[in-house]
Amino acid sequence: MAIIIAGSLTFFVYSRLRRNAAHPRLTHVVAAVRSIPEGIALTSDDVTLIDWPAEVPLPGSYTKISDVVGKPLIYPLGAKEPVLERDLGVEGSGIGLSVKIPEGMRATSVRTNEITGVAGFLYPGSHVDVLATFTVPGTPGPVTQTILQNVEVLTAGEKVEPDPSGKPQTVNVVTLLLNAQDSQKLLLASTQGSIQFVLRNGADQGKEKVEPTRLGELVTGQAQPTPAAAHPRKAAKRRGGMHAAPMPPPQVYVLEVIQGDKRSTTKF
Q1: H-run or E-run covering 192
Q2: Which one, of 174, 64, 173, 91, lies nearest residue 128 by Cα?
Q3: Are 174 and 156 in contact (CB under 8 A)?
Q4: What's the alpha-carbon Rg for the chain, to the nearest Å?
Q5: How far is CA 179 from CA 39, 104, 110, 140, 184, in A?
């Protein structure tokens, strides 16, 4: 009896497992009909329902076509690739590059060249630091300062996706993802001097305090103090308590205008 019962149970379980393997339980998920580039709003002609094993859950997937129609596509999709929540932007957020800009952020473009663009190795998704070299009024020599750290590159030229082959390519314009305040810093720095991108490891998300580098440090190898205008009273104390010498009177310029037989002068 034990052998008969064990054999019956084994046969029943084996038959059930084989039947489930031959006819797995399926569900439906929304997928792309064909390859679809990023930046467009999906229509009902772009997507379809495909079978998906119910035993393999797909987080972020959709089961109704109406749930994805009208939403912009942030990343490209291949044919029959399921549409996930992470692939879509908010309905009404626009098309093209605008769908990749999170709320509160800005896409800011600056002109670049082979040197500024790290020899063509700047790709969409890269992270960079931005250095600016300029001359501060009233100070001797130029200064280089790290003005932005860990900034994401949105586009390199007209490309919003990295080159699959990784081949370097020089571009004329680089677009960075910045908040409003950092956008102002970048645009001001680009008008005051030259800027340079410094490529960093994408896994390095840290920021550090970086002091500006002045021209004198390249010669002495030591940090130079920040020049500051001396207060007249403090300057007098450093000279042994003597009062500062009086300032010379401003120079007066005379402009003489001759119109025929008439003459006039103006001083300024």
Answers
A1: helix 180-192
A2: 174
A3: yes
A4: 34
A5: 22, 6, 15, 32, 9
**204-257 pLDDT, tens digit each:** 888 888 888 888 777 766 665 555 544 444 444 444 444 555 666 777 777 788
Phi, psi of 121 (to 5 degrees): -95, 25
As a whole number of angstroms, the distance between CA 162 and CA 123 comes to 5
Ramachandran assignment for 249, one of left (phi > 0), alpha (psi -120 to 50 degrees), beta (any other): beta
pLDDT tens per residue, range 108-127: 988 887 666 676 788 888 89
| Phi-psi category of residue 172: left, alpha or beta, with phi > 0 → left and psi -120 to 50 → alpha | alpha
12 in any annotated domain: no
Tell me which residue of 103, 109, 95 sits closest to 156, measured CA to CA: 109
| Dihedrals phi, psi of 3, to nearest 5 degrees | -65, -40
* 148 within a domain of the structure (yes/no): yes
Q: Is residue 263 part of a domain?
A: no
Query: What predicted TM-score, i.e. pTM, was given to this entire model?
Result: 0.55
Write out the E strands in the chain: 26-32, 47-53, 105-111, 127-134, 143-156, 173-179, 194-200, 213-214, 254-259, 262-267
Total domain count, the chain: 2
Q: Is 98 helix (H, G, I), strand (E, B) or coil?
A: helix
Residues 121 and 205 placed together within one structural domain of the fold? yes
Shared domain check, 88 and 37: yes
Q: Is 13 part of a structural domain of the chain?
A: no
- Res 238: pLDDT: 47
pLDDT for 118: 74
Residues 86, 108: one domain?
Answer: no
